[in-house]
Amino acid sequence: MSTRTAVVTGASSGIGEATARELAKQGYHVYIGARRVDRLERLAAEIGGTALPLDVTDDASVEAFAAAIEHANVLVNNAGGAKGLAPVAQADLDDWRWMWETNVLGTLRVTKALLPKLIASGDGLIVTITSVAAFEAYENGSGYTSAKHAQAVLHRTLRTELLGQPVRLTEIAPGAVETEFSLVRFGGDAERAAKVYEGIDNLVADDIAEIVGFVASRPPHVNLDQIIVKPRDQAAAGRFHRR
Ligand SMILES: NC(=O)c1ccc[n+]([C@@H]2O[C@H](COP(=O)([O-])OP(=O)(O)OC[C@H]3O[C@@H](n4cnc5c(N)ncnc54)[C@H](OP(=O)(O)O)[C@@H]3O)[C@@H](O)[C@H]2O)c1
C-alpha cells in the first residue's frame, strides 16, 4: 500500500487531536482512537481519517483497535493524563491505578499490539508523549510523576531493544500545555483547572503537534531520541513565572 498511515491514541482532545490534524496535513491516513467516539467521528470526517473506539486500559479494546488497522508507519502514544494532586501520605490508590493503567500499561498494550505492523512497514516510528514529569519529581505529584517515569522507561527500553529494526523512537516531554489535562486531573473543576494556566504564556496543543510533524518528516536514518519542550515561562515542572 502506498499511503503512509499513522495511529494516534487519545485523539479526542488536546495534543492527540492536534497531532492527528498535523499528520493528516502531511498526507498520512490517520487512525484515531479514544473513548469519546462522537468527538473522534467529527475529527475523522474533517481530516479524512478513521475513527476507532479505544480504551487503552482494556485488553479486548486494544486488541480490536489494532486488528482494525491494516498497516502502520507511525504510532503516537498520546493517551494519558493525571488524576488528583496529593501528598504520598494521602495518596488515593484509585487515582494511582487510573494513572498507571492509562499512561503505563496503556502505552504497553498499544505498543505491543502494533509493534509487528510498525516493524513490517520497513520504516516505523513510535512517538511517546511523556512529560517533564518523566524527568522530575514534584510535591503532591507522585502518582503522575511515577507513572510518567515508568512510561518513559518503557519507551527508552524499547529504543535499545529495537536497535537493528526499521523503527525509530522519539520521546516528547512537554511542560505546561493548555488542554483538558487539568480539567481531567481535577475531576471537572473548571475553576481549579484554569488556575494552573493563569498568568503564563502556555504551550498549546498545536505546538506539540508541530513537533510530532517535524519528527515524522525527518528521513528514516534520523532518530530524535528525546525532546523536552516547555513554555518560556516555565523553568521546571513546578517553577513558573506568572504575570
Ligand atoms: N497538557 C499538559 O500540560 C501535558 C504536559 C505533558 C504531558 N502531557 C501528556 O500529553 C498527553 C495528552 O494530554 P492532553 O494534554 O492532550 O490532555 P487531554 O486534552 O485531557 O487529552 C487526553 C486524551 O487521552 C485520552 N484518554 C484518556 N484515557 C484514555 C483511555 N483509557 N483510553 C483511550 N484514550 C484515553 C482522552 O480521550 P477520551 O477521554 O475520549 O478517552 C483524550 O483524548 C497525555 O499523555 C498527558 O499526560 C500533557
TrEMBL record:
UniProt xrefs under Gene3D superfamilies: NAD(P)-binding Rossmann-like Domain (3.40.50.720)
Lineage: Bacteria, Bacillati, Actinomycetota, Actinomycetes, Mycobacteriales
Species assigned in the record: Nocardia stercoris
Source taxon at top rank: Bacteria
Keyword Oxidoreductase: yes
Family: Belongs to the short-chain dehydrogenases/reductases (SDR) family.
InterPro entries on file: NAD(P)-bd_dom_sf, SDR_fam
Protein name: SDR family NAD(P)-dependent oxidoreductase
Keywords on record: Oxidoreductase
